[in-house]
Amino acid sequence: MKKLTNLLGLICCIAFISCNNDDDYESIPSSSYSNSYPNVVATFGTNLDLDHLYNYANQTIPSYITKDNSAGNSINDKIATLGRVLFYDKNLSSNNSISCASCHKQEFAFGDNVVASTGVNGTTGRHSMRLVNSRFATETHFFWDERALTLEQQTTMPIKDHGEMGFSGLNGDLSFNDLLVKLSAKNYYKELFQFAYGNQEITEIKIQTALAQFIRSIQSFDSKYDTGRALAPNDGVPFSNFTQQENQGKNLFLTPPTFNASGSRTGGGLGCAGCHRAPEFDIDPNSKNNGIIGTIAGTGIDVTNTKAPSLRNLVRNDGTLNGQLMHTGVITSLQAAIGHYGTITIAPGNTNLDPRLTPNGVGQQLNLTQNEVDAVIAFLRTLSGTDVYTNAKWSNPFPN
Questions:
Q1: Tell me, what's the pLDDT at 20?
Q2: Are residues 123 and 264 in the same domain?
Q3: Could you tell me which residues come within 8 angstroms of residue 7 by beta carbon, excluding any fewer than 6 positions away?
Q4: For the domain that residue 242 is a member of, what is the CATH number?
Q5: Which residues of the chain have a pLDDT value below 50?
Q6: What are the tens digits of pLDDT across the range 35-71?
C-alpha cells in the first residue's frame, strides 16, 4: 500500500508539472517539503523553496536553437536545484573561501571581471570562461584546452585543483573523498541529496550531474538578436528590428571573406561565423588555435587553447564587457578583438593555428575600415539579453 501511495503521488506530481506553462516557476503540489527537510529551511530560509521549485527543466528555447550537448543528463528541477546550492557553496573549497560562483559570477554572465580568478592557493592559469548558454553547442569538451571530455567531468576538476579549490590530494591537500565526507556531515546536504536523488549518499557522479544540470540551465535568449531572428526566416536576411548598421554588422559577421594570394581581403565579409556559428554563436568543434598563444603570466607558448564560450552576452546592459576576452584576458574591448582577427601574424612555434585564419598559407589581412569595425561591434551588442543577470533561479541561495 505504501509503495502504491508513493507511486500515485509521483504520477500526480509529474502530471501537474507537465501541465504548468509558466516559464520561470514550477509549482509542485504542496507536500510539506518544509516539514520533511527542516535543515534546508533553517539554512536557506525563503531563498530555497522546495515546495515551489524554479523551472529549470522546461524553459522556453527558440525553435531555431538546435544544438544541445546535454545528452544523457537531461535537466530535472530537483537535481538542478541541488546543483544551484553546490555551485554557490564555499564548502566545496578546502578553506571554505571559494565556490564555483567566485569565478563565474552572475553579474558577468557567469564569467569573471579579472584576468585570473582567485583560488585557495593562488590564481587560475587561464581567464575564467563565461558559462551562459553552455548547453547550446555541438562541442562537448570543456575548458579552453578541451581537456574535459564533458561538462560533467569539468565540474569537479576545479575542485580537485590545488590552486583553485584545493581538494587535489596532492601537495598536502585533502582529497576529493575528504570533500565527500565534509559534505556528508552537512545536514542540509543530507536532505538535498535525499530530495534530488531519493537517498542521502553523496558521490562525485551525483555532484557532477547536479552541477552540470544547473550550468546547462543558465540560458539567454531575450536579446535584440533573438527578437529579430524570431521574425526572420533565416539569419541571412535583414532583421526588421535592427538598425542599418546592425544589419551591416550581421552581414559582415556571417559572410566569408575572399582573399588574394598574399592573404589580403578583396571582398566579402569577415567570416566570423565560420568558427562562431549562428544562431547559438558556439565555437565550431573543429576550430584550432586563434593566434593567441601566450599565458596569463605573459611567458611561454601555449597553442592548445581551441575552445571558446558562446559569443552571446559579451557585454552587459550598460554596454561594458563581461570581463576580459580570450584565455589570457589580453583583449579588453570588442574593437581589439576584431582587430586581432583583422591582422593575423603567424607566431613562431604556433603549430596549431586554425587554417581558416591563414588563407593561401599566410596570416589573413582583413583590411578593415572603421565603418566595418563599428558595424560588427553594433551587431555583437545585439547578442546580449537582460534576464540572465538578475533571474533568481540562477542566484545565490545562501543568505547574505
A1: 35
A2: no
A3: none
A4: 1.10.760
A5: 1-22, 27-30
A6: 899 999 999 999 999 999 999 999 999 999 999 999 9
Q: For residues 38 and 149, state if they share a domain.
A: yes
> Between the CA of residue 181 and those of 157, 164, 195, 341, what are the distances in Å?
18, 20, 19, 49
Residue 192: inside a domain, yes or no?
yes
Report the pLDDT value the prediction gives residue 6, as an integer from 0 to 100: 41
Neighbours of 290 (CB within 10 A): 21
Residue 399 lies in a domain: no
- Grouping H, G, I as helix, E, B as strand and the rest as coil, residue 210 is helix
Within this chain, do residues 165 and 306 fall inside the same structural domain, yes or no?
no
Q: Report the C-alpha gap between 325 and 304 in whole angstroms.
A: 17
**Residues 211 and 235 occupy one common structural domain:** no
CB contact burial 34-59 (16+ within 10 A = b; e otherwise): eeebeebbebbeeebbbeebbbbbee
Q: What is the pLDDT of residue 14?
A: 35
Q: Please report the pLDDT score of residue 392 as a whole number.
A: 98
- pTM tops 0.85, yes or no: yes
Using CB atoms within 10 A of its CB, is residue 344 exposed (0-12), middle (13-18) or buried (19+)?
buried
For residues 355 and 288, is the Cβ–Cβ distance under 8 A? yes
Separation between Cα atoms, residue 274 and residue 285, nearest integer Å: 11
Residue 50 belongs to what domain range? 2-221+388-394
